[in-house]
Amino acid sequence: MPDWPLDLARALAPHRRGAADPTMQVADGGLWRTTSTPDGPATVRITRVAGEVRIQAWGPGAERAGSAVPGWLGAEDRPEDFRPGDAHPLVTELHRTHPHLRLGRTGRTWDALLPAVLEQKVTTVEAYRVFRELCRLAGEPAPGPAPDGMRVVPSAPRLLEVPDWEWHRCGLDGARRRALRAVAGVAHRMEPETGCDSAELQRRLRIVPGIGVWTAAEVVQRALGCPDTVSVGDYHLKNTVGFALTGRRNADDEEMLALLEPWRGQRQRVVRLILAGGPRRPRRGPRFAPTNYRRV
């Protein structure tokens, strides 16, 4: 039983790629999630009954995946160690009103890396669509009695087998395709073993062609629950943080990092607090139109 108020959907929201994500669904009174493990794929169902968290798992990786669920939900995080100080009243207030916000960790690089590559330099809507298409094309059906349509994220060996015409059918451009193939070839070296911290995993990832600071940050936030690493290069994040902390509509990455500097070591936690309850920057102008690479 967790000793903090647990919201399953919010705890796992960073791992969900849209409402139609084939690797995570809410159904039959529980939250279902598929995952890869060193032992093979697994499906996990998480429910709350009378204040207790109950876990069921199926597939070759069931035992390993089931034992990782407390980490997914933030059991290894220590929000009580965060001290907002007096650098900004908004952060102090957000910490007061969201004292149980926790940063979960999956311990799986690949499950976070594949969708992060797909999200490079495209709209969220387009990235989620390609992720769904790729899971249906190359991912295994979810083990066990999972809801219809659930899939496991495609394995690295399976991705290397996908021919160019099928990549094109998914609507994936050449740059992201090359990056995916590059990381798939070395995926077994990227899983965090004991003693591999955020800085080391980011260093390994950035050696791979096509993997930059933004992608590496997105991965360590999810795989390791890193409380400090910020997604530099994100199209919206710099403006969201800048508006919350200064009231100005536009900011750049350098300004965002300067604003977050008082909380170095916990900057990602501050970002998550802002996303959870901070003021929203008003939208102006037309939305960015996604490119349909299937027509290119």
Q: Classify the helix fraction into a percent range.
A: 40-55%
Mean pLDDT: 93
Low-pLDDT stretches are none
Shape call: globular
Helical segment count? 13
Q: Looking at the chains present, what oligomeric state does this protein adopt? A: single chain
Outline the biggest β-sheet: 4 strands, antiparallel
* Spatial order of strands in the largest sheet: 1-2-3-4
Q: Would you tell me the structural class of the helices and strands?
A: alpha+beta
Q: Report the β-strand fraction as a percent range.
A: 5-15%
The count of strands amounts to 4
> What gap, in angstroms, lies between the N and C termini?
52 Å
Report what the structure shows.
The chain has 296 residues and is of the alpha+beta class. The model has no long low-confidence stretch (mean pLDDT 93). A four-stranded antiparallel β-sheet has the order 1-2-3-4, with helices on one face. It has 13 helices and four strands. Strand 2 (30-35) and strand 3 (42-49) form a beta hairpin. The protein is globular and about 50 Å long.
How is this structure best summarized?
With 296 residues, this protein is α+β, with helices and mostly antiparallel strands. The chain is 42% helix and 8% strand. A hairpin with a 2-residue loop joins strand 3 and strand 4.
Features:
single chain, 296 residues, alpha+beta, 4-stranded antiparallel beta sheet
Can you lay out the helices and strands and say which pair or pack?
Layout: H1 8-12, E1 24-27, E2 30-35, E3 42-49, E4 52-58, H2 62-72, H3 89-97, H4 109-118, H5 124-138, H6 156-161, H7 164-170, H8 174-185, H9 198-207, H10 213-223, H11 237-246, H12 253-260, H13 267-277
Antiparallel strand pairs: 1-2, 2-3, 3-4
Helix pairs in contact: 4-8, 4-10, 9-10, 11-12
